[in-house]
Amino acid sequence: MTGGGPLGIVAGGGALPARLAAAARAAGRSVFVVALAGEGAEVDADATVGLGQVGRLFSLLRTAGCHEVAIAGYVSRPDLGDLKLDWTGIRLLPRLAPKLRGGDDALMRAIVGAFEDEGFRVVGPEEVAAPLLATECCLTVSSPDGADWADIARADAIVGALAPFDVGQGAVVARGIALAIEAVEGTDAMLARLADLPAHVRGTGKAARAGVLLKAAKHAQERRLDLPAIGPETVRRAAAAGLAGIALRAGDALILDRHDVIAAADAEGLFVVGYTAHDLSRHCGAGA
Amino acid sequence: MTGGGPLGIVAGGGALPARLAAAARAAGRSVFVVALAGEGAEVDADATVGLGQVGRLFSLLRTAGCHEVAIAGYVSRPDLGDLKLDWTGIRLLPRLAPKLRGGDDALMRAIVGAFEDEGFRVVGPEEVAAPLLATECCLTVSSPDGADWADIARADAIVGALAPFDVGQGAVVARGIALAIEAVEGTDAMLARLADLPAHVRGTGKAARAGVLLKAAKHAQERRLDLPAIGPETVRRAAAAGLAGIALRAGDALILDRHDVIAAADAEGLFVVGYTAHDLSRHCGAGA
């Protein structure tokens, strides 16, 4: 069911909004893209609004005939003093502002609620573009060996343990040692800082890769807005950090530009694998 | 009971070994200090051994009449190829090497076991120098307010959730948001990277401090070797990162150079507080 109109896409930064628009069009659906100003949206937009122009955003989507809306891409946590709110924004502020002090998830749920109160249905990227979602398979020539599976199981346990606290969609584990845990800084910053660790605790490039970057949605996560995503650039950064591969919990992460991801990983000898709890128990035993 | 001889101190890097030696001497006990070469020990040593010269280390301690040994200070995770093992080291290697692939705690337990098999009693820093241990009190003029206590409770929950995975002695939480989680990189590196976050998600210096650095021992932690420690430099780095204060789980962390820590914190307006589970439930309610 398409809601009888174009898919509205509210576009933050990064590659996801353009990929969603392309996937929707490929499925025969028209799209209406509203970019959020100042967030570096990489997509051809039909309109642009400031982060505080909430009323204008709703009105643009309604005028375009949108009943379903996908919200996609990075949005920097706003500084309330710079928001330049319109009247609808001012009306919603008491509801959203307290959530800015919590983790991402509370804020995401409040944003989804605000759209739904206006009569829009908020759809997740996997509803619009199922092929983006990581599935249980190894996409690459290289695949995880026993030590890699142990690292995947440990990283999965770490990310899982942090889920109740609305933090951590990513971790890097190499040879059993947690090299990095993602908080608010993002995956790119986490991978970049691996270069500061002593070479022998991490992999050292193509000759001796070690360690896994794992990405998985937080339990509580408002999945429609904030599924973790990787792209070719993630692969290149993981390769530069000396890692052996990337693991994504199946159904819990997005792969953007899949062909480029596979090509980049194969060129560097990395694996990219989607895994389930069943894989972990099969490769690592029940206690892993 | 002093074991009838001087306290042996096996000294890695950082300020802790010298503080332990001073505290033992102040308590009327002689010490015999063996520095580990290449680890940057900041202490007057009676002898220096390489990390692989395990037999020489045991023999030095025995010749000096030591029955009790404290192992203190940072030791970089060794590259096995560079160890230059002596015969005792070669004999112990099959026991220790597999632990290098696990977290710190398995390795620490194996090291303690190796000393005990040689007839030494391994003592923790708090046995030698009880005043170093954080207690339940606020040391500073500034003390945590309600928002700070909420941040402390959240950071404590995050560090606690990671404890079973032998990772994470530290975290930074500001206004409910986990800004950083410590993995293998260490507290200094974790604090340094806060500068890369947008100013409005963190505190912005003396005028608007926000956020708490929390340090607490891992559950499973071999406490005799690896209690987390702060010193005046930690306070200065926390201040530079814009944080409001530092929280240490009482009995689970060391404070080195306590007077300098207090002076540095008061000069910058930071709090330094030792807390218990009771404090968290009193300030934040049972569910915090």
From TrEMBL, chains A, B:
Provide the alphabetized UniProt keywords: Hydrolase
Q: Name one GO molecular function term.
A: hydrolase activity
Keyword check for Hydrolase: yes
- Is-annotated flag, keyword Hydrolase? yes
Q: Please, which domain of life does this record's source organism belong to?
A: Bacteria
**Matching Gene3D superfamilies:** 3.40.140.80, 3.40.50.20
Q: What is its EC number?
A: 3.6.1.54
Q: Where is the LpxI C-terminal domain?
A: 136-273
Q: What class of enzyme is it?
A: hydrolase
- All copies of the LpxI N-terminal domain together span 7-130
**What InterPro entries has UniProt attached to this entry?**
LpxI, LpxI_C, LpxI_C_sf, LpxI_N
Protein name (Swiss-Prot/TrEMBL): UDP-2,3-diacylglucosamine diphosphatase LpxI
Q: Which organism is it from?
A: Futiania mangrovi
Q: Which gene encodes it?
A: lpxI
